[in-house]
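Protein modeling request. Please complete all fields; requests missing the sequence field cannot be processed.
Requester role: graduate student
Desired output: 3D structure, token encoding
Chains: 1
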Amino acid sequence: MYEEILELYKDKLTDFFKNVPTFENQLLYSEFNKDCFDNMFKNNQNENPFPVKVLKEKIPELKDVCKKCGQYFMNPRNKSHIKYDVIMGQLFEEILIDYFTNHLKIKAVHGDKTNKKYPDCMILGKDKGIIAYFEVKYHCAPFISAINKINRYCYESSATLDYKKIERQLEIIESDIERPVFYIHWIDYPCLKGIYFETSEQVKNALINEKIFQRQEREGDFEKNPQSIYKEKIYSKLLEMGTLEEFVEIIRSMIK
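Delivered output (256 residues):
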């Protein structure tokens, strides 16, 4: 499905990123990425993930890609300008909403704009009632120093969530939303790519058990309301997530 989405929305994505610096294989998918998916995700071990060193032995191209990746992503790039971040987030939401609705015949819409604390997107049933909520997160920059900062490997620990924002949202989910809530992670690293998901229960568990990392201040922070600046981050465990195909099957079962 990920390759199909890249092909279907190629023009839309190319147009959006035409003036944005990107890594050489961003929003592309090759046999190398397929090998990375097989070794880093499909055939990996949840409790004892393969070290990057081992993966370089399994995937011959990985050594060179890792070198380029480190050189590119260790340099400051995105200054976290809020307008661009919001527009980019909406782009990936719109793509998945359109894909679900027009290609899979699963009715997806944006959430209630009058209540912005609710998850951003919804899945509707045949009677137009709300079946589930979901949020979309796009990640293209691996947490290069993860092994030193949080003692995890970059490829499986770079799906970022804002600690305080998620904490507040989980409170709303538990008190007000009587529907399943999913967090969809669009992963676009130089090595591992694909669309994965986790449940709000998994996110709550990460909130409790995972190490909190505080990022450095960025130029774009000065454009934001102080209450909207989230420096404390947690990193979901990619190897505990499901694939987009599995998400679609869950939603179809719920609709039935």
